[in-house]
Amino acid sequence: MKKTILTYILAIFAVFAAQAQNPVHKVVVQLNTSDTLVWHGALKNISNLQIALGANTQIELVAHGSGIGILIDGKTTQKAQITALAAAGVLFKACENTIRERKIDRATILTQAGTVPSGVAEVVLKQEAGWAYLKY
After folding, report:
1. Predicted TM-score of the model (pTM)
2. Which domains does the chain have, with CATH numbers?
3. How confident is the model at residue 17, as a pLDDT?
4. Radius of gyration of the chain (CA)
5. Distances from the Cα of 72 to the Cα of 40, 63, 122, angstroms
């Protein structure tokens, strides 16, 4: 009985030690510019983050305001990079407030992107949950 309890305790410590060695990194990226050079730079930095921080990295790009164009088919200059990053686990979110206010046809939003009710609220919620924050 004592051996069983000791084995469980050691297993728990091993799990915590493994998590400490492989921390989960969470990064929310806010994008609200129509500057296509900034779009390119933001996605390059996201790619670099994945390489530098490894597989335990969660990244979400939130596009709102002028930045919504990065997620609109026919307007984005970054479709191939978005496709590759989404396949690697990066989440892309379009602001529903911006979609509604700018009367954007939802069918034009890239299939790799989901939506959030409010882009700025999504950023705040992620920060409150401890996510690191980058703004473009």
Report:
1. 0.84
2. 23-135 (3.40.1260.10)
3. 45
4. 19
5. 15, 10, 19
Specify whether the CB–CB gap between 61 and 89 falls below 8 A: no
CB 73 within 8 A of CB 108: yes
Closest CA to 67 of 123, 16, 4, 25: 123
pLDDT one-digit tens code per residue, 12-69: 444 444 445 668 999 999 999 999 999 999 999 999 999 999 989 999 999 999 999 9
Strands, E assignment, 4-101: 25-31, 57-63, 91-95
Cα–Cα nearest to 63, from 87, 84, 43, 89 = 43
- What confidence tens digit (pLDDT) does each residue in 55-71 have? 899 999 999 999 999 99
Question: Residue 40 corresponds to which tokens in the numbers above?
Answer: 């390119």
